[in-house]
């Protein structure tokens, strides 16, 4: 099946076309050679083409200007058609950030589903409106082409109430939906299965802590293959120290700052765009922070210490939550590429019997791999994520469940 994967933003559309060659009985997609790719070997997952259309709706009158999402899709259509050579797309899979409490799995999109996603806009004002724009643009251009919504929050719908509920008056939940939702679920679900198979454990028996570390970062407790706790909450602001986000903070600080004259928009800007590594070290890029720390910059060293400590605390807590983790798994940009940050975190976890193989940790590879020593009490893995592949596979399963 030829699946067009779309990640629609308010001013950009990231796209990718995948050829999903087939599925075995356990639902894992296979390439033409029959290899699932879940044993640690690297494969491209059937990528035929990919790209990014940006500056949609901008004021630039030049030849690269893109008026709206409809025009962006025309450009994507031209790029895709040049590659497919007469073959036609079978379906479109959309990354949708917020599925609220309703959506616990990928769904075939119709008008009612589109309206339901739109009703969740207040919970993800920077993401869901853009996702809806992409869905409607596809419906207008290719009205008979099946579309599937794959939700970042869906993997976390298995959280027990004691994990998702906040200790605030019940009315805030029943009226406004204030609860823990969790994010990065598409990535975490994909990585969890690959990590389990790498360790030759059935995914439904897998207990692990999965750390998705990029500019946005979260950590998830996986028990028996399901999410039972996660660091991001009502929004992606809660939890770890991130590139520009503060993560966990005493709520009274917000009250204090309001009384000092900062308004709601100012608080949002402060906590989401000016905090985290950027606030501590002056740069939100982990590579730059590590380089500065190596050069003796105290602010960068402090930022790394705070960020690694916060993550190690979560890993320790989630090790308890899952009843004993079989693995700690690093993924996403920082998790896959920053051996230095992985080492800083692992050094704080020696009480759990974790021991890294220094050479394996330092080695650069695009393959899923174990980086702990044979005698480490808990395996430590690096598993590259591939959200587009996960979306394509989920879309194919919905459109052609047999």
Automatic annotation (TrEMBL):
Active site: 152 (proton donor/acceptor)
Molecular function GO terms recorded: acetate kinase activity; ATP binding; magnesium ion binding
Alphabetical list of InterPro entries matching this protein: Ac/propionate_kinase (IPR004372), Aliphatic_acid_kin_short-chain (IPR000890), Aliphatic_acid_kinase_CS (IPR023865), ATPase_NBD (IPR043129)
Keyword ATP-binding appears in the UniProt entry: yes
Basic and acidic residues: bias regions: 23-44
Annotated GO CC locations: cytoplasm
Gene Ontology biological process: acetate metabolic process; acetyl-CoA biosynthetic process
EC number: 2.7.2.1
Top-level taxon in the UniProt lineage: Bacteria
Residues binding substrate, per UniProt: 95
Pfam families: Acetate_kinase
Reactions mediated catalytically: acetate + ATP = acetyl phosphate + ADP
Site (described: Transition state stabilizer): 184, 245
Co-factor: note: Mg(2+). Can also accept Mn(2+).
Entry binding sites for ATP: 14, 212-216, 285-287, 333-337
Compartment(s) where it occurs, according to its Swiss-Prot or TrEMBL record: Cytoplasm
Coarse class of the protein's main subcellular location: cytoplasm
Binding site for Mg(2+): 7, 387
UniProt similarity note: Belongs to the acetokinase family.
Xref: HAMAP family: Acetate_kinase (MF_00020)
Task of the protein: Catalyzes the formation of acetyl phosphate from acetate and ATP. Can also catalyze the reverse reaction.
Oligomer status and interactors: Homodimer.
Name recorded for this polypeptide: Acetate kinase
Gene: ackA
